[in-house]
Amino acid sequence: MTEINQKTTIRILTTGGTIEKSYCESEGTLKNRASIIREGLISSLRLPYTHLELESILNKDSLEMDNSDRDQICAAIARTADQGDPIVILHGTDTMAVTAEYCFEKMGTPKVPVVFTGAMRPMGFIDSDARQNVTEALLTARLAEPGFYIAFHNRVFRIPGARKNLETGTFEAT
Fold first, then answer.
1. 14-49 pLDDT, tens digit each
2. Are 36 and 123 in contact (CB under 8 A)?
3. pLDDT tens sequence across 126-141
């Protein structure tokens, strides 16, 4: 018999990006450092039927990523997808669609839903969109069929088929 209120495990892979930037008082800078996602975001979400596993893959601004970084992300997706759980990838928004399409082209359709998301403002900022985007990505990962997606600002885009619109500061279908 299947448990009616069964817990779902979602695996979160972090790569850096604006969502993970934090302020360094001594330098007066915003930089990607060790992931602050667990303490700052995950611990504040109320998800009684979801178990989250967090793994840091990279800690880079997405504008600094190259194809060797994307290969690392693909390898992490392949290894993680073998466990059979949905995946959420936290990524910088500037090249998120590029990485998602790169993974799709290299891997085809994965065994599980793989949902990319990020934020326009760092998680620690009071007006950050991080909590909204991560929450929406987690729900998308639970409900979507296997494939690559971007969940952002209350929309879900299948990959390929999305890009960042610099004028509106969000993603749109292509």
1. 998 776 655 556 666 555 555 555 566 777 788 899
2. yes
3. 788 988 999 999 999 9
- At position 64, the amino acid (one-letter code) is E
Torsion from C-alpha of 131, 136, 139, 144, nearest 10 degrees: -150
Environment class of 109 (CB within 10 Å of its CB; exposed 0-12, middle 13-18, buried 19+): exposed
Paired tokens of 166: 């610099």
Structure tokens at 56: 């840091």
Neighbours of 73 (CB within 10 A): 23
Torsion of CA 22, 41, 137, 68, to 10 degrees: 40
Coil, helix or strand for 74? helix
Region 100-124: mean pLDDT is 93
Cα 56 vs. chain centroid, distance in angstroms? 11
Tens of pLDDT, residues 44-85 = 788 899 999 999 899 888 999 999 999 999 999 999 999 999
Spatial contact of 18 and 120, defined as CB atoms under 8 Å apart: yes
SS3 173: strand
Structure token pair of residue 165: 């619109």
